[in-house]
Inverse folding.
């Protein structure tokens, strides 16, 4: 399938702002949860394209915030960046150079909203090490499964489709609300 | 990806061997109680600070400028889209006067939108307001447009020309 054989490193090179925002979201959430950060790689030509090395957060909730931060930050930021351009594209079928840049940036940022399997492993690891209650495990487990599902659909361009969906959906939502 | 560093794992930028019970970064004897890692309070606080390299700050500034530009364009894009949709709804119900008003409002918010000006010209023609239709069509000259839109414009232009010629033909008779 031609969709699968494009190397991830090429895709991440074409959409590098998303990687930077993803790692920055991890770093920012570490700062907010009082978790020490040791190393941040915002972008590199390889796999993974970026990473944040930090100490083990003291509670599973803090680990959850760190793992899920890119989902919120990338989705919101991507949707906001592309909103005006998407409205012009889908309502008036008209785009200028700035619109194209905004759409590229918006989709690039929002497509990296999915936490990686590394984030899921860190979350799982934290729950086990902190001997979290069954209730916390039950609450967090669906998110871990969702992260793995996200990683799976990424192999079939699920991340790109998510990026397009978030940016177009948000612009449509704005126009619908205004009406 | 976020990766956890365990207390025993060597830190990426620490010196390799230090006796346990002292800070692994600077060798200070008192360890911070806020972390499980072997770090003194000042070293731990340094690790909490949001250290961002200059290149990433520049990228952040560029993204912030683009967000600002998008935000500045957003209100007009939304208003134009809302009026354009309302205009299409009126046009489908054959309410051309209301449709014309909505398209005129949409055109005011987004003056360069080709689709809006074409619809405005069309409903103005249907209302018999040839001058308005001609004005809207004239404003399109030099704009690049899709083939189907260009076809509509050409058709409308021909009809307007015929309508303009008709009184002259009647006078000749």
């Amino acid at each position: 399938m031609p969709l699968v054989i494009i190397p991830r490193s090429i895709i991440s090179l074409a959409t590098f702002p998303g990687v930077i925002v993803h790692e920055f979201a991890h770093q920012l959430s570490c700062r907010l949860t009082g978790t020490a950060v040791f190393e941040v790689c915002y972008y590199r030509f390889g796999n993974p394209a970026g990473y944040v090395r930090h100490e083990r957060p003291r509670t599973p909730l803090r680990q959850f915030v760190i793992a899920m931060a890119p989902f919120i930050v990338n989705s919101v930021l991507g949707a906001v960046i592309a909103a005006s351009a998407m409205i012009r594209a889908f309502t008036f079928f008209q785009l200028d150079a700035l619109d194209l840049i905004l759409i590229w940036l918006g989709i690039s940022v929002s497509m990296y909203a999915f936490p990686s399997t590394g984030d899921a492993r860190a979350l799982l690891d934290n729950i086990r090490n902190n001997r979290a209650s069954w209730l916390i495990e039950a609450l967090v487990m669906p998110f871990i499964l969702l992260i793995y599902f996200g990683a799976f659909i990424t192999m079939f361009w699920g991340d790109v489709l998510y990026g397009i969906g978030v940016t177009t959906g948000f612009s449509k939502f704005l126009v619908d609300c205004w009406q | 990806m976020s990766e956890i560093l365990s207390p025993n794992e060597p830190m990426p930028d620490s010196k390799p061997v230090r006796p346990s019970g002292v800070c692994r970064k600077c060798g200070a004897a008192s360890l911070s109680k806020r972390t499980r890692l072997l770090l003194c309070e000042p070293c731990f606080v340094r690790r909490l600070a949001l250290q961002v390299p200059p290149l990433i700050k520049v990228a952040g500034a560029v993204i912030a400028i683009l967000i600002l530009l998008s935000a500045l364009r957003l209100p007009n894009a939304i208003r134009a889209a809302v009026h354009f949709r309302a205009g299409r709804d009126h046009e489908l119900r054959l309410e051309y006067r209301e449709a014309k008003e909505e398209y005129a409002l949409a055109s005011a918010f987004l003056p360069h939108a080709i689709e809006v000006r074409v619809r405005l010209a069309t409903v103005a023609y249907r209302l018999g307001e040839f001058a308005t239709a001609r004005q809207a069509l004239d404003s399109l000259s030099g704009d690049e447009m899709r083939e189907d839109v260009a076809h509509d414009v050409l058709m409308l232009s021909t009809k307007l020309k015929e309508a303009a010629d008709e009184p002259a033909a009647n006078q000749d008779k």
Notes: Strands of chain A lie at 37-41, 51-55.
